[in-house]
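Example 9 (inverse folding). The structure is encoded as follows.
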């Protein structure tokens, strides 16, 4: 069975088997969510966002940290590993007390 869903909500799109991004009626990107959401700059250039986990990993990568953008959800992110996370870097990106800090501080950098 095939279900076609049209959405601007990336948290919904990340659950699909395949994502087709349209721009002005033309296919702009086509592939698995994991592949599509790694194209952060391309998506932003046409006014779309990426899942929060990808945004975090992208921001960390931009700050010089060696992280992959392949995790599109907290559940698919790398598991924590002692000594690999610079606590100060996390605090700068996600201040304590915010929900995203509590959820995403468990990722490995």
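The amino acid assigned to each position is listed next.
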């Amino acid at each position: 069975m095939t279900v076609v869903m049209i959405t601007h909500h990336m948290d919904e799109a990340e659950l699909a088997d395949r994502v087709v991004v349209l721009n002005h009626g033309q296919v702009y990107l086509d592939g698995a969510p994991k592949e599509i959401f790694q194209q952060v700059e391309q998506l932003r250039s046409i006014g779309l966002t990426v899942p929060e986990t990808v945004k975090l990993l992208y921001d960390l990568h931009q700050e010089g940290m060696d992280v992959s953008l392949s995790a599109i959800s907290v559940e698919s992110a790398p598991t924590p590993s002692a000594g690999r996370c610079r606590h100060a870097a996390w605090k700068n990106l996600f201040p304590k007390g915010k929900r995203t800090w509590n959820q995403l501080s468990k990722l490995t950098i």
